[in-house]
What does this fold into?
Amino acid sequence: MKEMTPENAAPQQDVSEVRKVRLAKLAALTAEGRDPFEITTYDRTATAGGIRADYDAYEDKDVSVAGRLMSKRVMGKASFGHIADGDGELQLYFSRDDMGAENYQEFKKLDVGDIIGVKGKVFRTKTGEITVHVKEYTLLVKSLLPLPEKYHGLKDPELRYRQRYVDLISNPGVKEIFVKRSKIVSAIREYLDGQGFYEVETPVLGTLAGGANARPFITHHNTLDVDMYLRIATELNLKRCIVGGFDKVYEVGRIFRNEGMDPKHNPEFTTVEVYQAYTDYNGMMDLTENLIRHCAMKACGTLDITYQGEKLSFAGPWERLPMTEAVKRYVGMDFDSEPLGALIAEANAKGLELPADTTWGKALYEVFDNFVEDKLTGPVFITDYPVEVSPLAKKKPTDHRLTERFELFIACKELANAFSELNDPIDQRERFAAQMEAKAKGDEEAQPYDEDFITALEYGMPPTGGMGMGVDRLVMLLTDSYTIREVLLFPTMKPRA
It folds into this structure.
């Protein structure tokens, strides 16, 4: 018969009452000279996952394993439980005849959530379950708070994100997301290293926040007595590396933007930015396509995935679609031939509020942003962005209203952004000036004027292709996660009162 512990006897019991019971157990152990928090090490000879993966090698062998007690079922003279360690769960079998009456009675006082070490022989039960027949156990850590009830787990999303440690313990699928994330980040480095890129590190703090159109976080450096900004991109420093003679560089870096929060955005997130001399945005499209394929194979073992019920294939080649063509295809507006005034009127009739003096490029981008993005299942590279929204990209030689820039869209989400990098210091100076004018008119996301970066360009930067990709969004895609909070171990949360 199952032993009724305080938690399973009264699931609705107040957590504070359970904690009191467990504190009393800890006090009793300590009084007997058996304080589990004094234990510093435990010699393990196997893991749960290792035993399950290679049972033949462990069958009838003595092992020592350790982990968290996830379940306990007491049935008179014998009991079963499950232990979870870093790579899986394993069944345990406890017998009074083997352990002795006194030790068995002590075992029955264990609580689900306690961390224990056990020694015993590996066998398979009549039902086929791989199990350790426990000869002795050691209480390594006393858990003072109860885990969520096994069959319901921790379900409240906000509580899951606030107490990710409990989420990881009680919801095994969550841990798998972060195992995949680790594989994806490793795959990014593996691919780029294999292509001859050098990984570098650039400052998180700076006196300017450039490389993207975004609001920064501001802090203060006490020794220098200056305000500083957490970086909103790694771009400008990486391009300084190209000026300095690196032909291929990248950085996997944490980025900070003082902006809104939604299923696709968190104030701090991870990107990979890649810069390669003597190539352009076409070369970056090839690199991006191959990089994502490499990550998909490493993390998922296939190029065909399902995201939120939508089947996606990463087999190539991926479509490359100019923005004007995308707007024409999905909205029916022809920015290549219709007069600007008529285009603005048509856009406003569809619900936008564009001023009469809106530029051609700004109008094109607003129509695309509002009416096209949510139709791009992809994978598709949207190319040739207007110069107004691309202050760091080279102009197209055939149409100076546009730049050699692309964004990659998969599952209606922007995943990567890339340019043929602007390396003309005169042009760059003019665009920084235009950004400052926009800032003076109230655009809080306009880029600052970076005189040192202009100086770097005046020394000469070779023709360069650059690409930035959201690592979190790639992980979302490859783990079928709807919200960015599912793929961040500790997402930003509003403090509780």
